[in-house]
Amino acid sequence: MASTKNIDADLVLELYEAGYATTYIGKVVGCTPANIRNHLLNKGIVVRPHSHSLSYRLSDSMEVIRSILSEGGTLKEALKRLGINIDPNTVRRAACTRGIDLQAYLYLNKQNKNWLVSTPGHWKREDGKKYVIATCKTCGMFSEVPVLKLDSVNQPICGSCSCISTN
Length: 167
What we know:
The chain is α+β, with helices and mostly antiparallel strands. It has helices at residues 9-17, 22-29, 33-42, 53-56, 58-71, 75-82, 88-97, 147-150; strands at 115-116, 123-124, 130-136, 142-146.
């Protein structure tokens, strides 16, 4: 563990001003959150109360969550898409306190030439493969499609219309 004398002061300040929690910053620089707090206090920086660290970044967290709910994808993709610099754990905690499972939206809006995933959620079957409910782009019927087939050249053919989309 690094002491407060061996901390990269610029990095600590940059991360803290970006809204990262002292726990996360401590992991990055290799010391305890208490050392980070002491370092910031010694530099004359007003430290956010620990109990309010979630509410401090709540608006950014909610913006990221709304993006995932509407556009799907991973948390990392949403942060990059929005250009928001926030600790991913803060977003996860905000989603969890609201009963939102971000993993359910992982494949939402993913598509290939035959299928569009328009429903959140995925599951594993006994065969160990992950499945999603996808919509056939040709006939509009819903079907269970293996996640791996969404990126595959050998895409599943719709059981209803039995045709391969040319989109």
